[in-house]
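User: I'm writing a short methods note and want a consistent example. For Zn-dependent protease, I'll paste the sequence; you return only the structure tokens, no commentary, since I'll be parsing the reply automatically.
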Amino acid sequence: MDFLNNILRFPLEELPFVLIVLVIAFTVHEFSHAYFAYKFGDPTAKLLGRVTLNPAVHFDFLGVLLLVIAGFGWARPVPVNRDNFKNPRLMGVVVSAAGPLSNFVLGIIGAFVYALLIATGVLDGITNERLLFAITTFLRYFCFMNFFLFLFNLIPLPPLDGYRIVEDIVPPRLRMKLQQFEQWSIFIFLLILFIPVLQMYTISPLYMWANSINYQFVFSFLKLFGVSI
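Assistant:
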């Protein structure tokens, strides 16, 4: 048990809740990409069965494993053919942004539910400690992980959504230059993974920002419900 706790990013007793949250967050994220791509005229994801909320088709074992161990990861990317869009650059930005924004919306929903349970006294009324732990742990990770994935996926490094957004915004010449460096992206992620100093200035701030966003929304909802803080 001590060995697992040493290599995992999250406490072992909380890991099941983390995994459940990741399944939901990754599934909605990739579904959002596929859905908007299909609506904008690209049938690629639809033909591959990706316009679905079935977690199995979006699951990427390595991506989830890295998130559990290193603190960052990914789901199985949705293939998108921008040539099928009427306005490839504009619609490409929307499709790329749909994934992170879906996580942001999920985070807000989680913060609302958490604040509502506090404001109505539901959590205070739960006498079963294990049930209380399960509910609060799930909601805490549900809010935090979705806000974290929102921020993480906006990093402008391939294959993340932030990079795809930049690709569609910049002029074609600059886009071609950026594509020359895509092959090095995996090495950048490995450096971040294995060099603590780099992680301190890359992934760690995202954790702090995600927590900050989470607290701000929870506190705002509590104020909305008339709960003094």
